[in-house]
């Protein structure tokens, strides 16, 4: 009986069997390759890994590198995170610089620069150089204006004796009188004081005795008197009693001060004080005479012979010099 394989394939039965077996094995291998394709496809594996990442960052294979990484970054650190950190640091530095610039030091009086709200800034503590210590324009001295004098009328005998006018030196004002008196004024001399602008942190005025004008009158008898204004005061008027001669005389004094009015400085003459009279209560009272506002006595007008016949004053405006 012939072999079974001869019915399936012609020729040698063992060869036909081997060829059939090879076909079966080949088909099995091919099918196995189709079903196992993912295990040999790195991109498909990468997709599976990406789906498994908890932070949602895509990775290639199992290396942990992002698409932007290269061989220069073997640690696999996320370059995006690094960039973000650098950007944050840069922003922080920029913000700090802006804050420092915008919060620059406020203008300071005394820095030598004229800032808004300052009249001047000379960077020193001298209050008398035209720029006071709070950077406002300030005075540099005192001015007495001789061009507009005002003469107070003579009191006493306007025609007796000889007329003599004595003026205080430039920059000085009348601050008192000295002489002798009994029943009337026998002798009289005028005392002048220099007016100075002084630095007391801010400008201020000081008056100090300076010049004693010549003695007038003849008789050295009687009692001596010394009638002087208080410190830093000037004579601004006079009053008294008179008949044939000058029986009694008193001076009117007022303080001179520098007034700070915020936007400006000015010289002010304060309240008037009458000194105690010298002489006797004889003769008749004559009304007190006072200089105009902002003026002080700088010249004495005297008529005299053996005694003092009449007395008067000439006033001049006084102000700050800028």
Report on the structure:
This protein is an alpha+beta fold. It has 2 domains: 4-52; 141-321, Vitelline Membrane Outer Layer Protein I, subunit A (Aligned Prism). 18% of the residues lie in helices and 37% in strands. It has 3 helices and 16 strands. Strands 1, 2, 3, 4, 15 and 16 form a 6-stranded antiparallel sheet that branches. Strands 9, 10, 11, 12, 13 and 14 form a 6-stranded antiparallel sheet that branches. A hairpin with a 3-residue loop joins strand 5 and strand 6 (185-199). Mean pLDDT is 78; it is low at 1-19 and 30-103.
- Shape descriptor: elongated
- Count of distinct structural domains: 2
Q: What is the strand content?
A: 35-45%
Annotated CATH topology of the largest domain: Vitelline Membrane Outer Layer Protein I, subunit A
Structural class: alpha+beta
Radius of gyration: 57 Å
- CATH class of the largest domain, named Mainly Beta
Distance between the amino and carboxyl termini = 152 Å
Q: What CATH architecture of the largest domain do you see?
A: Aligned Prism
The percent range for helix content is 10-25%
Secondary structure tally, helices: 3
Order of helices and strands: HHHEEEEEEEEEEEEEEEE
Major sheet: size, sense and barrel closure? 6 strands, antiparallel
What ranges have pLDDT less than 50 throughout 5 or more consecutive residues? 1-19, 30-103
Relevant CATH superfamily of the largest domain: Jacalin-like lectin domain
Tell me how many strands there are: 16
**What is the residue-mean pLDDT, rounded to a whole number?**
78
């Amino acid at each position: 009986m012939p072999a079974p394989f001869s019915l399936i394939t012609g020729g040698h039965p063992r060869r036909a069997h081997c060829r059939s077996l090879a076909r079966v094995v080949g088909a099995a291998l091919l099918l196995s390759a189709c079903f196992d394709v993912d295990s040999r496809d790195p991109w498909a594996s990468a997709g599976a890994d990406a789906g498994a990442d908890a932070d949602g960052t895509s990775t290639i294979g199992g290396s942990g590198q992002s698409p932007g990484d290269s061989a220069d970054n073997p640690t696999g650190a996320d370059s995006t995170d690094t960039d973000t950190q650098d950007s944050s640091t840069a922003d922080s530095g920029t913000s700090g610089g802006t804050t420092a610039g915008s919060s620059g030091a406020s203008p300071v009086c005394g820095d030598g620069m004229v800032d808004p709200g300052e009249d001047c800034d000379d960077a020193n503590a001298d209050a008398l150089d035209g720029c006071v210590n709070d950077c406002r324009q300030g005075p540099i001295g005192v001015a007495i204006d001789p061009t507009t004098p005002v003469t107070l009328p003579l009191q006493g005998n306007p025609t007796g004796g000889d007329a003599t006018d004595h003026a205080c030196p430039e920059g000085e004002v009348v601050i008192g009188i000295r002489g002798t008196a009994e029943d009337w004024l026998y002798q009289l001399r005028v005392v002048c004081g220099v007016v100075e602008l002084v630095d007391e942190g801010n400008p201020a005025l000081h008056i100090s005795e300076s010049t004693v004008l010549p003695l007038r009158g003849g008789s050295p008898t009687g009692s001596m008197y010394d009638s002087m204004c208080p410190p830093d005061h000037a004579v601004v008027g006079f009053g008294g009693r008179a008949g044939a001669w000058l029986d009694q005389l008193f001076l009117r004094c007022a303080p001179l001060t520098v007034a700070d009015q915020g936007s400006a400085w000015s010289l002010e003459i304060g309240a008037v004080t009458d000194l105690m009279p010298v002489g006797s209560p004889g003769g008749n009272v004559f009304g007190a005479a006072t200089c105009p506002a902002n003026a002080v006595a700088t010249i004495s007008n005297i008529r005299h012979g053996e005694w003092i016949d009449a007395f008067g004053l000439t006033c001049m405006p006084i102000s700050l010099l800028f």
